[in-house]
Structures are given as structure tokens and as C-alpha cells.
Amino acid sequence: MRPWAVKLYSFLYPHDWPARLVRQLGCRAELKVREHTVAVRSIGGPAPLRVAYASDFHAGPMTDGGIIAGACDALRAAAPDVLLLGGDFVEHDAAQIEWVAPLLGAVPAPAGRFAVLGNHDWWTDAPRITDALERAGVQVLVNRNVRLAEPYENVWICGLGDPWGSRPDPAASFEGASGMRLLLMHSPSGLVDVGRFSFDLALCGHTHGGQIALPGGIPIIVPHGPLSRRYARGRFEVGGGRAMIVSCGVGCSALPLRVFADPEILVCTISEAAVAEA
Is the pTM of this model over 0.70? Predict the structure, then answer.
């Protein structure tokens, strides 16, 4: 976001009055915990692997801070082995990351905490957001991957760059990842960049499920991206044995409310296919 736009936004929406107004009117959405069971070819370690995922916090005037704190509580209660975070930590002010990052860093995840950045993070101050997350114990993966430690040494977390702030490089994201690949990207439109590269499970957000949707969850307007409407929310098989789950996210952008697109976190229980079929 350009500096003049940040100043205008701050002038129009000082503090968090839009989110407070919605809360006072009784329109605050309730956080949901969506659980998925995913069978993959091989974990190469003890199964199942429990992964918690959250995205699109949008800390700022449009998001009730209580929703973000509640999401972090739910992530802790999920007791994941791995915590994955899909970006858009702030709305327009990078300073908001200073209170969000410690909450995320306090989520116990013995196999590690990993994140990618979203378009709002790149539009504000990506280096500051990255620094705050890593100080809190969250590794930021931009076009690179990390191999988990024992007993999950056959699992790689592969982070893809976002086209609105960095050039996506799937070859770099997957380089050397010879086992189970968990792909972490901000938007489902990252599939365009990934092309035919293989992965076992992709987790992303960005769409907010439309944020304001029709009954049944049909989005009215979706954020930019060629695949945002096609993959607005939920679980999809995207070819080649690859699965993708798109989260509605946690916070709000542009407007301080959600309709038929409740905030959510994801909890994925990943088992080997042979175990899942037994």
C-alpha cells in the first residue's frame, strides 16, 4: 500500500472503531474450527501428523482483536504438531504485527511454526513483519522449504512467494523436497504458478470465503486472483493426487463484518493412505 494510502486509511479509520461498532451492534461472527482428515502416500514417521492452519488475520481497524486472540486460543487448544500460517497478518499498519506475532509464537507446535506472507504484508512492511514473526519463533518461507526434524524428517514445508509482493518460484519452493510436501501459499491462485509441480497437500487463504456471501456460502465478491472464485473455500482435489484446502481466514478487510463466511482455523489430521484405509 502506498504511503499516502496508508495515511488516508489511518485518517478515516483511527484505532479500531469500525470493529468495535460492529461488535456493539451484535454482528460479531463466531470463530469456527474446521477439521479435515487427509490421507497421503507416506509420512515417513509416526502417524498421524496434526497440522493447524490460520490465515488472513488483518490486524487493524476492521478486525476485532478479540477474534484474533480467540483464533490463537483455538490454535493452542488444537495441540498441533505443526503450525502453518498463510499471511495477511496486518491490514495496513505493520506495527500491528508487534502484538499479533507473540500470540502466534506462543502456540505450542513441537515440529515447528511456519508462515508465508500475504499481499497486505507486502504492501505494508514485509521486512518488519518477517522480523517480528521470526523473533516470535515463526519461520517465514518465501520460495524456500524446510525439512522437519525427527520423527517427521520425511516431511517438507514448502513456502511459495506471493505474486503481489514477491515473484513466486515453485522450483525454489520445492528444491530438494524429496518426501511428503506440504505446500504453504497465501492464495489459491498460487496454483497457476505451481503448475504441474507435485505436492501432497496445499493450504491457503486470501479469499475470506468472500467475507460477505449468500446463504450456503456463495461469495458475492472475491479478492483479486484468477482462481479466487473457483476455489473460494473448502477442500478440493486439484489433479495428480494433490489436495488443496482454502480457509475463510480469521479477520476482515475493507469492511468490518462477515456474512455467511465465518472466521475459521483449520485442523488437519494427516495419515498415511494405508493407515486411513485400514
Answer: yes
The whole domain housing 85 covers 3-277
Torsion angle in degrees (nearest 10) through CA of 63, 68, 70, 75: 150
Q: Which three cell numbers stand for residue 25?
A: 451492534
- Contact between 116 and 185 (Cβ < 8 Å): yes
Q: What CATH number does residue 48 fall under?
A: 3.60.21.10
Q: Which amino acid is at 203?
A: L
Kindly report, residue by residue over 52-91, the tens digit of the pLDDT: 999 999 999 899 999 999 999 999 999 999 999 999 999 9
Cell numbers that stand for 66 in this block:
478479540
Report DSSP letters for 226-269, one per residue: TTTTTTSSEEEE-STT-EEEE---SS-SSSS--BS---EEEEEE
Could you write out the DSSP letters of every residue in 123-168?
Answer: HH-HHHHHHHHHHTT-EE-SSEEEEPPTT-TTEEEEE---TTTS--
Strands 82-85 and 112-115: parallel
- 201 C-beta neighbours (distance < 10 Å), count: 22
Could you give the number of structural domains in the chain?
1
pLDDT digits (tens, 9 = 90+) for 126-176: 999 999 999 999 999 999 999 999 999 999 999 999 988 889 999 999 999
Instruction: Give Cα 109 to chain centroid, integer Å.
Output: 16
